[in-house]
Each structure stands twice: as C-alpha cells, then as structure tokens.
Design a protein that fits this description.
Helices cover 37% and strands 19% of the residues. With 484 residues, it is α+β, with helices and mostly antiparallel strands. The chain is elongated and about 100 Å long.
C-alpha cells in the first residue's frame, strides 16, 4: 500500500503543476468558447491517473522536473531526498525527512509513509460513503416525483434541476416552472446527457476522491464543473436563435434562489454558479472564426506539452585527463563488460571501452563532471552495461537520475533512473573462483566466464594504470591509455 501511496503522491505533484498551467491558460481563453477550456481538464485527468507518459522536446513541463520526484525506495535511503526539480522545495523537504536510526528495526520514514497511506485510504472511503449516503437520501426525497415523459420527472421539493444516474440518466425539474423556463432548462439538461457530462462528472469525482488531500485538485474540480456548465449553456445558445438569450437568462435567474443539491453526490449534479452563468449568457456572442482557430491551436499545443515529459537532455561526453603514474586506487578498476570484441571498465578516473581487435581504447568518458566518479560511500556510482555492450547506465546511488551512455554513437544523456532489464553483470563470477592469490587487490573484483570455459578479468602489476591489462585465458592485452 505504501508503494501505491507514493505513486499517487508522485502523480499529484506533477498534476499540481499542470493544474496551475491550465488555470493560467484559461485566462488567455476568456473570449474563446468555454468548451475549449473544458477540454483542457482532460490533460489534468491524465496526469492524475496515469503514472507514466512519453518524452518530447516540446514538453511544457519544467526541464529539471523528475518524472518520479519521490523515489519508491526513499524509505530505505540513508539520506532520504526528493527531486521535484524545484531546488528550494527539494532542500526544505529533504532536510525535514527523518534519517534511519542506527540499530532501529524500522525506519521512521517507513512508519510515516505507512500511516499516511492508511489516512489516504480512509479519506477515499469517507468520500465514497458520503456520496453513497447522499444518493440514498436524495432518492428517498424523489419518491414523490411525477413522471412527465420518458426520463423527465418533476418534483415539488426541488429548487434546482439536475441529472441523476449513469446508464439510464433521468432529468429532475422543480415544480412550478412555466413552459418557456421548462423548455430552456430541459434543453440544457438534455445537452448534458448528450455530451456524456453525467459520466464525466462521476469520473472526475472518483479522481478527486483519490487525490482528496490536495486543495489544488479541489479547485480544479470546481473550475472543471464551471466550464462544464458554461460550455453547456453556450451549446444551447448556439443551437437556438440568439433571440433566446434574455429569456434563457431569465430562466436561470428564476433558479438563482435555489441551492445546488448535495455536492457529494457525483451521480446527481445540479446547476450551481447561477450568477456566473447568467453573466456568461448575457455576454454571449458567436465567436469569430479566427478566435476559434487560435484557441484550438493553443489548447492542442498546451495539451500535448503538458501530457509529455521533457526529453532527456543530451550531454557532450568528454575524455578524462590521465597520467601513466596514476594509481587505480584501493578499490581497483571495475570490469563492467567483456565479449570477443570489446571490454568495458571504469574507475574514479573514467569509463573506457577497449577494442580487442585493434588493441586500443576506442571510447573514454570522464565521470567527474557527472558526479559519478565515487567508488564507495553514499555517492557510489553504479555502472550497468547491457548484454550487447552498447548501452551503459551510470547511476549515482544518492540520486534518482542516471546517465545513459551509448557506445556506438558516443552519446550521453540524462534520464530518470530505471533498472536495466537483463544486465550483463549476470555473467560475472567472483574473482576468488578464478585467481588463487593473496594479492587480490591487483585484480578486478569480478571475472567473466565465456562459453569456451575461459575467464576474462583485469590485472595490474603495481597498482598503476600503466600496467593495467585485460587477461582472457592465456592471452594478455595491455590497456594502452593515451597520456594527456
């Protein structure tokens, strides 16, 4: 449950930015048909329920935004950190998170996350129960409603019309409306049903129930409901003659004294914000063609830009500066990959690709600019290579990002960390199974077992890179570094 809760928190953080962006975009679309603003909320819904997306250079999300700002393994980290892309927020929140207590059986942060998950579930249950009870109470009040025709009912104890139901929605009208008022209001409610607004409202409420703890999501829900009503009014005015504007506004005014029905009932929604609707109806004018075209372009651009994640930044790989006298350090050079053609290895001074056919280093990458040159401690850099030896993942263990290096194209890009499927390291065996020596510090920690029965490993005579070599069976290749 804790992992699901963290996933929801991550979607919530990303969606909060999207909601704010949509709210600002609505201000630019004041003169546009409200249905265009209404459509924008679909992007918010996507971000609130889908935990993943595609990458694009046209993304409107902040470039330094992490798709997973709260790592799922945060409860196990020695120094818990989040990465929203907003430095002030990250620094404040990360500094407030409790670190694991030495000797404690349970991490305090793990307890807090678990408690938060239970509170989150209880909040969802409370909203859904309240909604169900509201529906039952409402249905009891509607027992005396009179069927007028088809799915249209009239009730004496109502002050506002509404739609109730999903599969077979019914329209309930207040008693005492004159024929003109009834016709306009009925057309409005039928437009809701025709556009499937009664289903959209239910789905929106369910999404709200999942993210109930975020006030920004509540604001989004209310604004979406407003856009739903305003766009529905405009649809009615568009289908009818412009001469109905004042009579239609009067029909809304007659309901102004009424109050919306129970707001916790997603299966029944009434006509709220009557004052805003009257103002919008009285100011309604058929939008010009260029305004519609411009608005559609804006919405399409914003929609795609907010759905897409920012594409990983391309980084220019640089070669490390070396000297022959440089030592390999106490941890020795790490063997990352070996095949019949190439060998990949790394140490604090860089990552290298050695070609066994030409017997020279064909690729080298300076790890220090990437802050991935640590060989131990919390900032240890984990290096993983794919089975074909073409993709190298460099992951500083203290962060949620990684660097992906492609050997064939010599390209480097930053991305959100994701464990590699079927990495080459599964081919490793401990060096102790290969070398019977008391000087294991001069050998790589792992060796590669080939189908021929031969082993491949690294060795240095005196602990310097000048004598570093790759051994496979009875062959030895001197890894000739080029001196800077």
């Amino acid at each position: 449950m804790s992992e699901l809760f963290l996933t929801v928190l991550n979607m919530n953080l990303t969606a909060s930015y999207v909601i704010i962006f949509v709210i600002l975009t609505r201000l630019l679309l004041k003169k546009a048909p409200k249905v265009i603003s209404y459509a924008l909320w679909g992007v918010v819904a996507f971000r609130l329920i889908i935990p993943f997306s595609f990458d694009s250079m046209f993304s409107l999300m902040p470039r330094n935004t992490n798709a997973v700002p709260i790592p799922h393994d945060i409860i196990y980290q020695q120094s818990p950190q989040i990465n929203t892309g907003i430095e002030i927020v990250d620094s404040f929140v990360s500094g407030s998170l409790p670190a694991p207590i030495i000797g404690a059986s349970v991490n305090p942060l793990q307890i807090y996350v678990e408690i938060g998950a239970y509170i989150w579930i209880l909040g969802i249950i409370a909203l859904l129960v309240y909604s169900l009870v509201s529906i039952l109470i409402l249905k009891r009040r509607l027992k005396s409603a009179q069927l007028i025709e088809k799915n249209i009912f009239e009730a004496k104890n109502l002050k506002t019309p509404f739609v109730l139901g999903i599969i077979r929605p019914n329209i309930y009208l207040p008693d005492g409306l004159n024929i003109e008022e009834r016709n306009y209001i009925l057309l409005h409610e039928q437009t809701h049903i025709h556009r499937k607004d009664h289903i959209i409202k239910v789905l929106a409420f369910l999404i709200l129930s999942i993210h109930w703890f975020n006030p920004i999501v509540w604001i989004a829900f209310m604004l979406m409901s407003t856009d739903m009503e305003l766009s529905c009014d405009e649809r009615v005015l568009k289908e009818m003659d412009e001469g109905i504007i004042k009579p239609y506004a009067n029909s809304l005014l007659s309901l102004a004294a009424g109050r919306p029905i129970l707001n916790g009932s997603p299966l029944a929604f009434g006509e709220g914000n009557v004052r805003g609707r009257i103002k919008n109806v009285l100011n309604y004018k058929k939008p010009r063609f260029w305004i519609i075209v411009f608005s559609i372009i804006i919405v399409a651009t914003v929609g795609i830009g907010l759905v897409a994640n920012p594409k990983a930044a391309i980084i220019e790989p640089t070669a490390p500066e070396l000297s022959f006298e440089q030592t390999v350090g106490v941890d020795m050079v790490e063997l990352d990959y070996a095949s019949d053609d190439i060998v990949i290895f790394h140490d604090y001074f860089g990552l290298f690709v050695y070609d066994l056919n030409s017997q020279k280093i064909i690729r080298s990458l300076d790890l220090k600019p990437l802050d991935c040159h640590q060989t131990q401690g919390d900032n240890y850099c984990d290096v993983t290579v794919s089975m074909d030896g073409n993709t190298v993942q460099l992951h500083p263990m203290s962060g949620e990002d990684m660097f992906v290096y492609t050997v064939s194209s010599n390209t480097l890009q930053e991305a959100t960390y994701k464990p590699m499927d079927n990495p080459f390291r599964s081919q490793f065996v401990p060096i102790e199974e290969v070398i019977n020596s008391t000087r294991l510090g001069n050998y790589s920690h792992h060796a590669v077992l080939f189908d021929t029965g031969e082993y491949g490993y690294l060795h240095t005579e005196d602990g310097t890179i000048e004598t570093l070599s790759y051994v496979r069976g009875d062959k030895r290749y001197i890894l000739s570094f080029t001196s800077s």
